């Protein structure tokens, strides 16, 4: 009888898990595995994968890395020990993604804090104002920003009417950064707000009462309790930033290259699937390591995104 | 009709490596108000859930009205449950909630309407039929849960701590109401509670659970006056324990030599033989403080430690050697005379009759 | 009033209850700074959007000099068959992939929340993975996959891919809802004579409905908004609206794009309001 019960139970689990498991394996895992395999293949004359297996694609990524220490002051202090085309590409992508995540966080935190301290009615209104861009097409929003900053866009037109010289606002690393921050702000504000809204402010009073100053109370009491929101927001900002494609094209005009954009090019403009797969795999590894490290460092007991 | 409404025969339930119910056997008589009493985690709720059919016994068998239940699912058992959380369907009105079971039985619309009306009448909520559960108070929700179960005319009604979520005053009212209701409908009630006062007030019989086992089954009077184990004596009401060794057993009575060589005499319970470790259990209301020693064998000089006046009685803590004992003196006369009673630090004589004390084997 | 998407990303279980609020004026000195930053941020978020909408009514073909009010760009949008086709494709893909994602995601959430079985924690991790794998990687891996198994790209590949990336979000939303689900209500139904199927249909499903609707709205929006993955798995005749817009933007500015963008913005606002209303209704 118990045997029959067990069989019925496992049949039921299989029935419930089946379709989803099938989809996840066939249309998510297997494609990633095929991509990994292709990254070890040669390319034929059209740029598509062909035998034999090779390490060439990974060799291409590291082949021009040289020890070449340099210091420059272009765009802030730059200290470099190595150079190399793809090394620089990865470095720039991570650097831009990381900086934009930090800037986004620095803007989003006070905004979320402000929202959470409002009376209920206004709180819901501001939340609504954050949710509209949150749910709006990312491409459309980035396009709107590009439209604003364009050479003949509203800002430069305004400058011209005022008799001032127009300025180049687009197609610079700075423009990409602004685009990333603009695009990702709602994804940082919303999780932070969700954590802050639930935060019981009497705990800060309790911490003060026990002798903690404002900074200590923030660090020891508030930070651990809002860390789920912090982690979720940072992941939601950092991951798309590393792999960003739309922003690089629209805001950087393809001039400030980032890894996601280069990968996309291997599958569209200049066809080289094996090399593109190798870059994609490397990027995935980097993002996963970053995410895992970030989760580990995240304090607080609550389970966050993963 | 079988003798027992519900019978558990050697039932055990194991979750992983936790034995929740450990070889429990008991019979619940027809039309009885039966309480399963014990601290949390003692197995009482698991037993109830096995009767309802939500859990299957790991071993043993449960009989409802003489029929072995085996793997019969809950929806084929003629028992109904009042859940601790009430478990009312939030998306249905009171009427729809109460009518759900009848609908499942396939009764006609008009029959359902009639019986739902009667059931709501019974719990005194006829005007609430169109409301949703969330629009009602806790006490009202509790009655809806009761109506929803009773309307099906089950052989047995199972109640899982049904009064737990109510405040103290409402609880008292509902205790009386439930008892009256049970007599009115003439259905066997099995009631799970951790509140010993509730169990004593309402039940015909009580089963006291501890660590998955049933320690004692009996009427409230038996459970209170003749607990067979130290656990039951301690869990039901308040009591004083005096530990020692049995000196001799003489018919119904046994004498115990306690710490400090003092000798106490009480009723000998099961397993009391000369030489075994035992405790003398005596309830605080059965102990008196007097100015002069009397002829009871349990009369010793004590020092009054503290006194608390609680209206109906005066609660005194006295020290006897290293032991502290509770003594509750009923305030049978009204007086504000400061010299009327003992004061802390004074000495007095403590006395209790052998027939009011129990000697329990350890 | 918080979106489900953030709740699941926070790993939260359940409703967000209002918490006791401390004294509102705690940040006395910093208050001015907070208000200022918040105002600037909202302006930063909204000015480009509002400007775009305003200029979608500008009759000038190029540049940002205001000429006169016109509805001609909207008129062109609604008479351009390629735009209408792209919009229809987007709606077909979003509808079918929402349906698919909601069904398989909900079933999976039921299995994961209500049973304990071997390999469960591996699935738990795997279901989070699509959230942290960059879109571009998912897009190209699907492109490679469809090429490898020789499925020609079109609406079918779009729907398959959209189900794949929407399903984990549905799963996470439904899992959170199921964790909150009071199972004694199901026991009560069985106790009252309902068998398992009737219990599911009469009690479980109606009570899960708000969660199902929320996750469907989430999946619908994700599908409608997706550009990167669609870009790689779309075929010649099956462009979705974002893919079409992308092509036009790259070719240069056409004022129709401003009009489409404005329309898509209005659609987002409608969806946000719908979500809010549903979540609000649940609470009262």
TrEMBL record, chain A:
Gene3D superfamilies per record: MetI-like (1.10.3720.10)
Compartment(s): Cell membrane
GO biological process, one term: transmembrane transport
Keywords for this protein: Cell membrane, Membrane, Transmembrane, Transmembrane helix, Transport
Domain ABC transmembrane type-1: 90-294
Pfam families named among the record's database cross-references: BPD_transp_1
Family matches, as PROSITE patterns: ABC_TM1 (PS50928)
Protein name according to UniProt: Spermidine/putrescine ABC transporter permease
Origin species: Candidatus Thermofonsia Clade 3 bacterium
Lineage: Bacteria, Bacillati, Chloroflexota, Candidatus Thermofontia, Candidatus Thermofonsia Clade 3
């Amino acid at each position: 009888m118990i045997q029959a019960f067990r069989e019925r139970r496992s049949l039921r689990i299989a029935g419930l898990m089946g379709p989803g498991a099938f989809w996840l394996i066939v249309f998510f895992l297997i494609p990633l595995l095929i991509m990994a395999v292709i990254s070890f293949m040669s390319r034929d004359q059209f740029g598509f994968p062909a035998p034999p297996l090779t390490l060439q694609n990974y060799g291409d990524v590291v082949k021009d890395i040289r020890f070449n220490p340099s210091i420059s002051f272009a765009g802030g202090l730059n200290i470099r020990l190595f150079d190399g085309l793809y090394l620089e590409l990865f470095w720039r992508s991570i650097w831009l993604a990381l900086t934009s995540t930090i800037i986004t966080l620095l803007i989003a935190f006070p905004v979320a804090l402000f929202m959470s301290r409002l009376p209920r009615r206004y709180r819901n209104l501001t939340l609504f104002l954050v949710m509209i861009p949150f749910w709006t097409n990312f491409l459309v929003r980035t396009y709107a920003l590009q439209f604003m900053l364009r050479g003949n866009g509203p800002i430069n037109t305004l400058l011209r009417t005022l008799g001032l010289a127009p300025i180049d606002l687009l197609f610079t690393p700075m423009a990409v950064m602004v685009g990333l921050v603009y695009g990702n702000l709602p994804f940082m504000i919303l999780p932070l707000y969700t954590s802050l809204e639930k935060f019981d402010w009497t705990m800060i009073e309790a911490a003060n009462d026990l002798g903690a100053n404002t900074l200590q109370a923030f660090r020891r009491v508030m930070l651990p309790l809002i860390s789920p929101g912090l982690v979720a927001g940072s992941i939601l900002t950092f991951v798309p930033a590393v792999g960003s494609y739309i922003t690089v094209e629209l805001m950087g005009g393809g001039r400030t290259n980032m890894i996601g954009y280069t990968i996309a090019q291997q599958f569209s403009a200049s066809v080289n699937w094996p090399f593109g797969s190798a870059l994609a795999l490397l990027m995935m590894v980097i993002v996963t390591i970053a995410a895992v490290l970030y989760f580990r460092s995240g304090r607080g007991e609550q389970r966050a995104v993963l | 009709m079988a003798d027992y409404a519900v019978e558990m025969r050697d039932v055990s339930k194991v979750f992983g490596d936790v034995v929740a119910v450990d070889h429990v056997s008991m019979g619940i008589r027809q039309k009885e108000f039966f309480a399963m009493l014990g601290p949390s985690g003692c197995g009482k709720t698991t037993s109830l859930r096995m009767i309802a059919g939500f859990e299957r016994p790991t071993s043993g068998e449960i009989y409802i009205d003489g029929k072995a239940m085996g793997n019969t699912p809950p929806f084929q058992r003629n028992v109904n449950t009042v859940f601790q959380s009430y478990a009312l369907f939030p998306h249905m009105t009171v009427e729809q909630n109460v009518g759900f079971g009848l609908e499942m039985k396939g009764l006609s619309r008009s029959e359902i309407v009639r019986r739902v009306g009667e059931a709501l009448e019974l719990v005194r909520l006829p005007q609430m039929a169109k409301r949703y559960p969330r629009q009602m108070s806790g006490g009202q929700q509790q009655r809806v849960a009761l109506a929803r179960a009773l309307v099906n005319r089950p052989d047995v009604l199972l109640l899982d701590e049904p009064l737990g979520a109510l405040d103290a005053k409402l609880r008292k009212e509902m205790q009386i109401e439930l008892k009256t209701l049970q007599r009115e409908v003439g259905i066997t009630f099995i009631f799970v509670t951790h509140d010993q006062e509730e169990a004593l007030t309402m039940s015909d019989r009580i089963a006291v659970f501890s660590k998955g086992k049933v320690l004692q089954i009996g009427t409230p009077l038996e459970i209170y006056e003749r607990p067979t184990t130290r656990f039951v004596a301690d869990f039901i009401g308040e009591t004083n324990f005096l530990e020692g060794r049995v000196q001799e057993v003489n018919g119904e009575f046994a004498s115990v030599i306690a710490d400090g060589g003092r000798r106490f005499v009480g009723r000998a319970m099961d397993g009391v033989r000369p030489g075994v470790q035992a405790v003398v259990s005596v309830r605080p209301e059965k102990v008196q403080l007097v100015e002069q020693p009397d002829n009871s064998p349990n009369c010793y000089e004590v020092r009054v430690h503290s006194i608390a006046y609680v209206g109906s009685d005066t609660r005194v803590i006295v020290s006897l050697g290293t032991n502290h004992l509770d003594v509750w003196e009923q305030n049978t006369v009204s007086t504000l005379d400061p010299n009327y009673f003992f004061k802390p630090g004074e000495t007095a004589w403590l006395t209790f009759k052998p027939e009011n004390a129990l000697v329990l084997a350890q | 009033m918080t979106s489900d998407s953030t709740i699941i990303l926070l790993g939260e279980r359940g409703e967000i209850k209002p918490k006791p609020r401390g004294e509102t004026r705690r940040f006395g000195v910093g208050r001015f700074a907070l208000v200022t930053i918040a105002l600037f941020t909202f302006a930063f978020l909204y000015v480009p959007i509002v400007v775009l909408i305003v200029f979608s009514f500008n009759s000038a073909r190029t540049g940002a000099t205001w000429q006169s009010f016109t509805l001609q760009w909207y008129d062109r949008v609604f008479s351009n068959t390629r735009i209408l086709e792209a919009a229809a494709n987007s709606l077909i893909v979003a509808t079918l992939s929402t349906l698919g994602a909601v069904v398989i995601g909900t079933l999976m959430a039921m299995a994961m929340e209500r049973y304990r079985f071997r390999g469960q924690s591996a699935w738990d991790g795997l279901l989070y993975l699509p959230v942290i794998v960059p879109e571009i990687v998912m897009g190209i891996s699907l492109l490679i996959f469809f090429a490898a198994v020789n499925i020609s790209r079109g609406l079918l590949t779009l729907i398959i891919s959209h189900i794949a990336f929407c399903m984990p979000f549905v799963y996470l939303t439904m899992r959170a809802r199921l964790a909150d689900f009071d199972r004694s209500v199901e026991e009560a139904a069985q106790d009252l004579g309902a068998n398992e199927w009737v219990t599911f249909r009469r009690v479980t499903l109606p009570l899960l409905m708000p969660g199902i609707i929320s996750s469907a709205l989430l999946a619908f929006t994700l599908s409608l908004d997706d550009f990167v993955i669609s870009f790689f798995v779309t075929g010649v005749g099956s462009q979705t609206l974002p893919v079409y817009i992308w092509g036009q933007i790259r070719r240069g500015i056409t004022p129709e794009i401003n009009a489409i963008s404005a329309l898509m913005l209005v659609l987002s606002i409608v969806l946000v309001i719908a979500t809010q209303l549903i979540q609000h209704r649940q609470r009262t």
